[in-house]
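Page 37, top half.
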Amino acid sequence: MSELLRSAGEVLARRETIWSLVTSNLRAGHRDKALGHLWNLLDPLMFVGVYFVVFGLLFNQGRAAGRGTFIIYLSIGVLAFRFFEGTILQAANCIKANRGLIHEIRFPKAVFPIAVSLSRLYDLLWGLLVLIPLLLAVGVPLTLHILWAVPLIFLFLLFTSGLAFLAAYLGAFFADTSNVVSVVLRLLMYLSPTFYYARGEHALIPEKFRILYMANPLACFFEGLRDAMLWGRLPEPGMAAYAAAVSLAVFAVGFGVFVSGEGRFAKYV
């Protein structure tokens, strides 16, 4: 425990390094794009359009509760999953992508997956902010419950960062990590309520499997954000407590595993 606290202190002392990596990642992500940061909005919107045709029209989810409502529901899921997916995939390669710094400078390597998580968080926050006028446009009233999105996003960041540490750790030692992670993420996308209703009268998930289905932390985060932003209600306390416990545990385990192996990174990359 003392070793982990010492490592955490070293990471916190490198706040300027983390910020520099975050800004560098953001610039690199839009360097060759004519529309620059506008793609933070356009890219997920195009995915929303595709999934709306498939699930909103072909699977009749859009007609079930109103097309405008389903577009918002779908947008929240797509934005949240793209943050999760992008963070894990980029983290899996972040150690080898920075092999020059790892060989030449002595500093806590945890700054790399943390910077990846914060860079992707910027995209998520931008998308959710732009979503607010869309909520008003389709007639969804904003309530004070929308403030619950703040702690939920923080917990989601912790959960995702914990898995990012694990992905970065594995990616430093195994070249095939990104390929395996990509397949797992694709499976998770369909096992999470990214683009279909998981609760309520229009749910595609049978009631008898609902508890098992909601054991997926992603389902708790997605549905919690929708409760706060779309449905204007308090996220389910049990679901939120479960998400908080899992987030803290995953972050602690991920950080611990990463720190235990960072001394060997230079040998493998």
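Page 37, bottom half:
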Amino acid sequence: MTPRWFVAFVVTSALAGCLSDPGTTCGPLMHYASELGVCVCDDHAVAHAGGCKVCADDEIVVGDTCGCAPGQLKDGQGVCAQALGLGSPCDVASACTNATYNYCAVRGASGACTSRCAVDAECPASYVCADWEAIPSCRTFTGYGATCAGPSECASYDASFCAQGHCVVQGCTVGTDDCPRDTACCDFSTYGLGTLCVPAGACS
């Protein structure tokens, strides 16, 4: 049996419904993905009201919504623009000098300037408050929501697992929910998938 989250993922992560036969005409802002056998939203569009809507020119697809790219925020005109200091490389020898993004969050061998936080709302739209860390800070998950046709297309991202045509985060911790914003960590070991970050509420 197909896990129920796969169905939810179809709806909420730009796999907008309509299981189809090859050659079936898809709706506006959609195209037929032969490797999946479904109509999917175009790369710059997200699922909305049973169909798809295009993101603004200054936005990117962030999971199942439109938002500013990592390192950017909406400016006074409501347009995504580079946020000074956010995402800048840093380490012990090169501190973060921006008053807002003055915390150097190190993951692996590299660090990036960001801000400390307590809840997701304190972070930009494409970031999550990593409250599972000893010092919570706003962070991103690279590649989350990117389209893919196979594992190799996600391998270099934090979202390194290709599921239903999109890169998702695998290997999260259930109960900790160390996942992108608006997703939760669910255990799909029964299906040989391990733990995955999936749309909130789609674990069962």
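Margin note: The CA atoms of residues 141 and 170 lie 11 Å apart.
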